[in-house]
Amino acid sequence: MLLQTGSNKAVRVQVAPGGSYLDERLSDSTTFNTIQSVNWNYIILQGQKYSTSGQYSYPTEATEYWAALSKTYHATPILFPEHPRQGNADEGSRVYALHLGIAEQEPACVAPLGPAWANAHAALPQVAFYSDGNHASLAGTLLTALLFYQIISGENADELPYLPTLALSESLQSELGQLASATLQQYGACEY
């Protein structure tokens, strides 16, 4: 919806089936066939395993493989580090750093979710960004979507018009757009 509203471009979205991690998808022919079946412009890669406590490390080769494969088919890979659990800003920084490390091994865009969520909590402490302490509320989902909108479209998220179909106030939508744009100005996403 954001891409169609802000850029007037035709958008086709395909969500990979199931909730598998990227390493589990290596044996999934459906995911591989989906990537090669269409001339995608962007492929968002979500599902790198990570330790929520930060005490363990998981291999990143599968994520690197999917990023490389995306580029083989002329698509820009965008790594999707998870947002932190509520009250755990360190997790957001750690997961973001993990994905930056992956992008150093296999160049890819990295959406700065951890920094964006930290900025949002600091700027809008009264807003509930979680529905249950782990999953994003509508405000959290919109913040994340605005980051991807700006990364993919190249248009500033803070210039999107008010979307009355979303159950969020015009002022909150505007503030979230400003936070997304400011975060991407500070951190960037596509450095390769």
Structure description:
The model has no long low-confidence stretch (mean pLDDT 92). It is globular, with a radius of gyration of 16 Å. It is built from 7 helices and 3 strands. By secondary structure, it is mainly alpha-helical. Strand 1 (42-45), helix 3 (61-72) and strand 2 (76-79) form a beta-alpha-beta unit. It has helices at residues 2-7, 29-37, 61-72, 89-105, 113-123, 138-153, 170-187; strands spanning 42-45, 76-79, 109-110. The longest helix has 18 residues, at 170-187.
What does this entry show, briefly?
By secondary structure, the chain is mainly alpha-helical. Helices cover 46% and strands 5% of the residues.
Topology readout:
Elements (H helix, E strand, L loop, with lengths): L1 H6 L21 H9 L4 E4 L15 H12 L3 E4 L9 H17 L3 E2 L2 H11 L14 H16 L16 H18 L5
Helix pairs in contact: 4-5, 5-6, 5-7, 6-7
Could you describe the largest sheet, including whether it forms a barrel?
3 strands, parallel
Assembly status: single chain
Rg calc = 16 Å
**Mean pLDDT across residues:** 92
In whole angstroms, the N-to-C terminal distance is 27 Å
Uncertain residue segments: none
**Share of β-strand residues:** 5-15%
Number of helices: 7
Order of helices and strands: HHEHEHEHHH
Class derived from helix and strand content = mainly alpha
Name of the level-1 CATH class = Alpha Beta
Outline type: globular
Count every beta strand, where a strand is a DSSP E run of 2 or more residues: 3
Strand order of the largest sheet: 1-2-3
Known CATH architecture: 3-Layer(aba) Sandwich
CATH topology: Rossmann fold
Number of domains: 1
Percent range of helical residues: 40-55%
**CATH superfamily annotation:** SGNH hydrolase
